[in-house]
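Late entry, evening session. Most of the bench is empty. Finally got around to the prediction I had been postponing all week. Sequence below, unchanged from the version circulated by S.P.
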Amino acid sequence: MARKTAHDDPPPSSRSRSDKGDLLAPVTIAVGQEDLLLDRAVQQVVAAARAADADTDVRDLTPDQLQPGTLAELTSPSLFAERKVVVVRSAQDLSADTIKDVKAYLGSPAEEITLVLLHAGGAKGKGLLDAARKAGAREVACPKMTKPADRLAFVRGEFRTVGRSATPEACQSLVDAIGSDLRELASACAQLTADIEGTIDEAIVGRYYTGRAEASSFTVADRAVEGRAAEALEALRWAIATGVAPVMITSALAQGVRAIGKLASAPRGARPGDLARELGMPPWKIDRVRQQMRGWSADGVATALRAVAAADAGVKGGGDDPEYALEKAVVTIARAARSR
């Protein structure tokens, strides 16, 4: 069965130390590095605020947008006493002067305003995090889910949140097929609950997703740009065997190599959020590409791009054997990943 296009994320299921009835607490801190859970923490608060007042004004700010004095302007009394949600992303990256402003605000938060601070949870900016906790802020834990057991618990929670039943085997199969991307897992759970009536079992998951992770064109690209030639070739052969179009694989390879080139030429020391805006990538991808680019050189990127162009021509009728063209490109890219 063909997989439908992923739709919007399902209802939030972030874990909180506070009762969900306290969504409109004056201050909420969402702590961790899992982007999906951070976004859901924000969505929960915004939804609650708009349920209380449909005209709620939402301001979503990055550290560079929150300058000294900005918070005071945003939280100053309004003639119309409007409800407002002020979201501050990557709060650990705020300037020292702005952190002083936020700490001062924590001591006397404004009525009808909910401040949401998103914080990575590390040592950087810990003073702000401690101050928010001391002030009694509602806290939502958004930890990076690095362990398979955590992702399995997440999937179970997704089904439980919408009141649906899925067998343990189905949950495990879904994690095995989708992998570690929480957004993909959430989208898969939402699709299954929308499409299937009754209990979701392993056979149903198999019909939708068996072979998906292994056959993904992006898995081929990821293994190639990481210099893992044997694994890339294995993923490539499985992808072709399960019907992935060769043109999709060349597209994924091109995106993978271009991402390496873009990030390699970006200013050193720039923050992931700034790079994401400049390069047109989500912040989580910036972190992944940084890990992938360690063995790359400028010559290696150029070589890999030429290999992708040759493969693209090969799969679009310029050669007699599209599979060979792809295999050659994968091997060349994997070698280029070790060119430094």
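Two things to note before I forget:
The chain is about 55% helix and 10% strand.
The beta strands are 15-16, 27-32, 57-61, 84-88, 113-119, 138-142.
Will write this up properly tomorrow.
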